[in-house]
Amino acid sequence: GYDVIIARSGEEGIEMALKHKPNLILMDVVLPGISGFQATRKITKHPEISHIPVIIVSSKSTETDKVWGLRQGAKDYFTKPVDKKAILPTIKTLLG
Question: How far apart are CA 35 and CA 28, in angstroms?
C-alpha cells in the first residue's frame, strides 16, 4: 500500500531524498559507494531532509552495527530477512 522509489547506491539515495522528499527511507548498509551508515548520517544532518525518518534494514546483525546505525540518526534498525509483521508497525508509527 506504499509507493516506493529505489536507489541503487548511498549517493543516489541522498540525491533521491533531496529530489523527492519521501515520507520515510529504508536504508541498507552494504551499498556501492558510500555505506548506508554514511548516507543515513548525511540525510539526517541535511537541513532540507533531516525530518525524513530513516530505518536501516541490513544483513549486518551485530549489536555494534545496530548501535552505530542508531547513532547515525536512524530511527530503528532491522536485520534481514525482515519479518513484515515486525517492521510494518514501526513504519506506520513513523508515518503518523
Answer: 8
pLDDT tens sequence across 6-21: 999 999 999 999 999 9
What would the pLDDT profile of 19-38 be if each residue is shown by its tens digit?
999 999 999 999 999 999 99
What does the buried/exposed string (b/e) look like for 57-80 if buried means 16 or more CB atoms within 10 Å of the residue's CB? bbebeeeebbebbeebbbbbbbee
Q: Give residue 27's identity as a one-letter amino acid code.
A: M
Q: Residue holding cell 532540507? A: 48
**Nearest by Cα to 54 from 92, 88, 93, 23:** 23
DSSP letters spanning 56-74: EEES--SHHHHHHHHHTT-
What is the pTM (predicted TM-score) of this model?
0.96
- Cell numbers 552505530 correspond to 68
